[in-house]
Backbone:
């Protein structure tokens, strides 16, 4: 994300901004699904107040949080807060670019004022679906409820090391290194994969 | 490490005359060779190139890009650019998490006690991998 200081827009003032509407990237969403559009200036307290009141109702099964540019981190924070308050939620996270169209007007006072500038900007954006009901775990970006490690399962960690040893790379399998303080799980590989 | 200090559960304004704030580094997360932790200090293009090299090197089927706090946007940008350069062959699988951070408040005066407070930050973990050609 650029600041306006060095992007050549110092002599201009933003007078308009439009976002390109695009459909939510989740399959088979009910048409009336609650979508929380997080903006840079949104207050988390207000967003969560509304979102929690909707999710507390038994009949509301899903909710979507979306945000782009400077609102992305806030969007994730809302999702993390909701997961802590409402347990057992399934999550799918999608990333994409959001197209913005900004209109800038010249700041110069003297005539001729100069033309307006239209800027097209692609900003990173995020869409997160939270669901009380299970979602398809094969979907890219799926995250099961309350996963403790959050990054990978012990089985995945082991499979990664085993496939490296099959390619002949000499690496100790999952040896813990006390100096680095990293958490490593000791797993016994099946016999046929040991050299 | 100011371990002998008191822990504050809630945020409170700190008086700069009373304390200096020192942020503790986040707890060391496991680091496989295909884990990339994005930061705001290193040049963006250099981090992007590093991810590109790891993917093209052929040693890994996937890399995992991690971003904490302000670096979340940068991590997403890198992932989307890798996908854009990848000729349609790359897929992204993002996960989110909360990371606990600790600040050490060091007293400016001799009478003061060191105090630590914890806060939470959001983090993103993006797996970048090749789609199976079917």
Residues:
């Amino acid at each position: 994300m650029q600041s306006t200081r060095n992007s050549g827009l110092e002599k201009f003032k933003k007078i308009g901004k439009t976002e390109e509407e695009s459909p939510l990237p989740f399959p088979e969403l009910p048409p009336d699904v609650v979508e929380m559009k997080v903006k840079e200036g949104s207050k988390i307290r207000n967003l969560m107040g509304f979102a929690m009141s909707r999710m507390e109702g038994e009949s509301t099964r899903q909710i979507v949080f979306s945000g782009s540019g400077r609102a992305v981190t806030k969007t994730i924070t809302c999702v993390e807060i909701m997961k802590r308050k409402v347990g057992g939620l399934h999550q799918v996270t999608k990333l994409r670019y959001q197209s913005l169209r900004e209109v800038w007007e010249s700041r110069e006072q003297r005539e001729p004022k100069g033309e307006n500038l239209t800027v097209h900007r692609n900003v990173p954006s995020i869409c997160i679906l939270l669901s009380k009901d299970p979602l398809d775990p094969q979907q890219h970006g799926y995250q099961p409820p309350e996963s403790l490690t959050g990054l990978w399962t012990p089985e995945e960690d082991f499979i990664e090391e085993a496939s490296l040893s099959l390619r002949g790379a000499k690496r100790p399998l999952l040896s813990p290194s006390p100096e680095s303080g990293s958490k490593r799980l000791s797993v016994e590989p099946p016999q046929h994969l040991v050299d | 490490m100011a371990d002998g200090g008191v822990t504050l559960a809630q945020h409170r304004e700190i008086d700069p005359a009373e304390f200096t704030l020192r942020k503790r580094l986040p707890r060391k997360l496991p680091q496989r060779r295909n884990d990339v932790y994005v930061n705001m200090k290193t040049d963006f293009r250099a981090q992007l190139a590093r991810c590109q090299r790891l993917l093209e090197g052929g040693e890994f089927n996937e890399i995992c890009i991690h971003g904490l706090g302000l670096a979340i946007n940068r991590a997403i940008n890198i992932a989307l650019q890798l996908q854009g350069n990848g000729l349609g062959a790359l897929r992204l699988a993002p996960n989110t998490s909360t990371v606990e951070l600790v600040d050490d408040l060091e007293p400016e005066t001799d009478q003061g006690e060191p105090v630590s407070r914890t806060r939470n930050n959001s983090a993103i973990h993006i797996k970048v991998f090749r789609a199976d050609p079917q």
Chain A touches chain B at residues 1, 69-70, 72-73, 76-77, 79-80, 84, 91, 93-97, 124, 126, 128, 140-143, 150-151, 157, 160, 180-184 (CB under 8 Å). The longest helix of chain A spans residues 72-85. Confidence is low (pLDDT under 50) at residues 152-188 of chain A.
